[in-house]
Design goal:
384 residues, alpha+beta, Rossmann fold, 3 domains, 10 helices, 27% helix, 30% strand, globular
């Protein structure tokens, strides 16, 4: 869940904000209906209205959107912005939009279900000839070694044990998985290359599969693959999350090799990166091939994010298509909760019904009410 300081950090990223402002100015036309997805507290929605949009629909699931109306009123455009606190998939507009404004990227343009959101918006919410502020994302990758951060990983202790716990196995497992790193946290061993390109104006499938090949420029140790994006916005504005960004709110992705490999100048290295959407999130695969310049046999490795996910084998089994779920106590409470929501009962009345049906679950009225309120809020409010 984003905090207000996170949204401010996005706006305070000068390169990002100035690029999006230039792109918005280049893309917008007087009288446009603009749809912003992931509006935060409405900064760019207010800018769009000030630039001549006839109306802006600002969509944001986070409570930060509550600050939007006051921001719009302060800048004289409150009558031309509708703030909608909901998921993008829940949006229903009275008219289709002429222009889509969004920056739903994380350190990868694929994170957060972004491609599915863009596909849905194009089908349901935009005019057939709608324009896009963000047009193309190029996914970049480079063979690299991590830079030392200093300090090392100290053993974790609780209280005053006789000896520190060893977390070697946990750290080893975590080190094999995909993770975020700073844009200055690695040293490239060869110039970056594009492994995939996404046309944001015509997103169809959610999976991405690509390759890139390199010639190592200096002797070193190949520890993994650093990845970032270069985005093309309207009017030729560009943003990047890579080393040339000077640091940004996005960060980079890191795909480590299970075993570091020494490489020499002139060696060939290649990577295949594949992101497969499993209906909830992406499963990443990265395959590495090192072809020594001296003619020795190529060395290959293959890794996946599945090995380091915290989804246990038992939980994976319960998500399998052939799994037959049973109705235990937890599901029974959920079912009765949803059955009790009829658009007329108050939270207090719903909680009272649950107490009658599940006395062992709720020891008193306060416990029942607190759980009911929190659970319905969770079901009704989308994750940020």
């Amino acid at each position: 869940m984003y905090a207000l300081s996170d949204y401010l950090a996005m706006i305070d990223d000068h390169r990002r904000t100035s690029a999006y402002t230039r792109a918005l100015r280049a893309a917008i036309r007087p009288g446009d209906v603009v749809l912003e997805l992931g509006a935060g507290f409405g900064y760019f929605s207010v800018e769009a209205a000030r630039m001549g949009a006839a109306h802006v629909y600002a969509v944001e699931p986070n409570d930060a959107i509550d600050l939007g109306p006051a921001l719009a009123a302060r800048h004289g455009v409150a009558d031309r912005i509708t703030f909608l606190q909901c998921r993008a998939s829940e949006v229903e507009l009275p008219v289709r939009a002429d222009l889509l404004l969004e920056d739903l990227r994380g350190c990868s343009p694929l994170l957060g279900g972004r491609l599915g959101i863009l596909r849905d918006a194009r089908v349901r919410l935009l005019k057939p000839d709608a324009r896009f502020v963000a047009r193309h994302d190029r996914l970049m990758v480079a063979p690299a070694a991590l830079r030392a951060t200093g300090g090392g990983d100290a053993p974790v202790t609780v209280g005053e044990p006789t000896e520190a716990l060893s977390l070697d196995d946990v750290r080893t497992r975590a080190g094999r998985g995909w993770r975020r790193i700073d844009a200055d946290g690695f040293d490239p061993l060869a110039p970056a290359a594009c492994w995939a390109s996404i046309d944001l104006t015509a997103v169809d499938g959610l999976d991405v599969d690509g390759r890139a090949a390199f010639v190592i420029e200096r002797d070193g140790v190949l520890e993994g693959w650093a990845s970032w994006f270069e985005a093309e916005l309207a009017g030729g504005a560009l943003i990047s999350s890579g080393p040339e960004s000077g640091g940004s709110v996005y960060a980079c992705g890191w795909y480590p090799l299970e075993c570091s490999e020494p490489v020499r100048a002139g060696d060939g290295v290649a990577v295949r990166l594949r992101a497969t959407h499993d209906g909830t999130d992406y499963v990443w695969l990265w395959e590495t091939t090192i072809t020594p310049a001296d003619g020795r046999a190529p060395r290959r490795s293959r890794q996946s994010s599945l090995g380091t996910s915290l989804l246990s084998a038992a939980r994976r089994a319960r998500r399998a298509a052939a799994h037959v779920p049973g109705v235990g106590e937890a599901l029974a409470v959920q079912r009765d909760l949803l059955d009790a929501v009829d658009g007329a009962r108050t939270l207090e009345e719903i909680a009272a019904l649950l107490r009658v049906r599940h006395p062992a679950r709720f020891v008193d009225a306060r416990t029942a009410l607190a759980w009911t309120a929190a659970e319905l809020a969770r079901l009704d409010e989308p994750p940020a």
